[in-house]
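User: Continuing from earlier, I have the next pair ready.

Assistant: Great, send them over.

User: Here they are, in order.

Assistant: Folding the first of the pair now:
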Amino acid sequence: MNMQPQPDFEMRGNRFQPLTWQAMTAEQQAMTRAVLDGKRGSMQGPYNVLLRSPEVGQLAQQFGAQTRFNSSLPLALNELAILMVARDWTAQFVWWAHRRIAEEAGLSTALIQAIATGQSAPEDLLPEVRVVHRFCSELLRHKQVSDATYAEAVSHFGERGVVDLMATMSYYTLVCMSLNVDGYPLPEGAHAELQTLT
């Protein structure tokens, strides 16, 4: 018998209605504890959706923790990749949450605005920022990266860095898909910051 106290948490959802602790299976409760006990400490975002398949959800939250908190890439570059995936999916909550983190990590307002509006990146980017921007742009738009972009990414970040970059993009693609399918609501008082690009 599990004698641990019920954790304190809040979840939101739309199509996937928020689960209560009492309504969860043992596997769902285990996943919830794993998320709450980790660095995120919150069940906001995709977890209400992922709880519906807790085995997948456990693997996803572990993958997400690795890509977000243990990437070999600097935080600003990791957040750049996340913003580019969020823009590609017009994922409002992911953009809303990570734009602030990206700004605090040092990404320029001009670059963030260019991504939001689908414009070309500013010319004055640091080389490593330009490489990540180009890599993500090519992979999202063409589903490939050129030999030149790949070589430049390896030169800056090594093969591990390239894999970590792809992993971040992969995980946040799952997050964006989950939240878009759910129609996940923004927090009270927040507004959608991304327009649909044509």
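And the other member of the pair:
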Amino acid sequence: MNEQERLFSTLEKHNQAQVDNLEKEVEETREKYEELKKTLASCTQQRRSIEKKNHNIQNKLNKALAELAEERAFNKLLRSDQEKWSAKLAEMEAKNASLNEKYAAAVNDLNEQIRDLMMHLEAETKIQDAVEKNEVTEQEINESNVIVTESPQHNLVKNRRRKKK
């Protein structure tokens, strides 16, 4: 029996060593499991955080793209309006130049008419003065042609100055 007890004792020690070994492995596995569980929870949290950031960035990108499209459309309208206004400006400038030419022609025509009228009035005044001074008779005026020479310009300037006062 002694040998059986010794064999039994050896077997029991061996089994106890195996049980201790298995318990140690189970404890290590449990620690690794807990560590992996924490790592998984941390990774899951990080993934959620990254997905949230990605979602926010995607929203900002979509908003920026919408604003960009709106700005491009607005810019296109502004360019179109600028082209229209440039064309209208060119048209108005051409019309203004034409009107200025017509105005200048009308002013020149009126100046000529004024000059002719002034010459007529001056001739009439000279003839009237000649009749009053008895240098010429009414009959001579009615029967003849009278040529009146234009007086020097400085006399007209003096007359104009007197009229203005």
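Worth noting for the second one:
The longest helix spans residues 2-132. The chain has one domain: 2-164.
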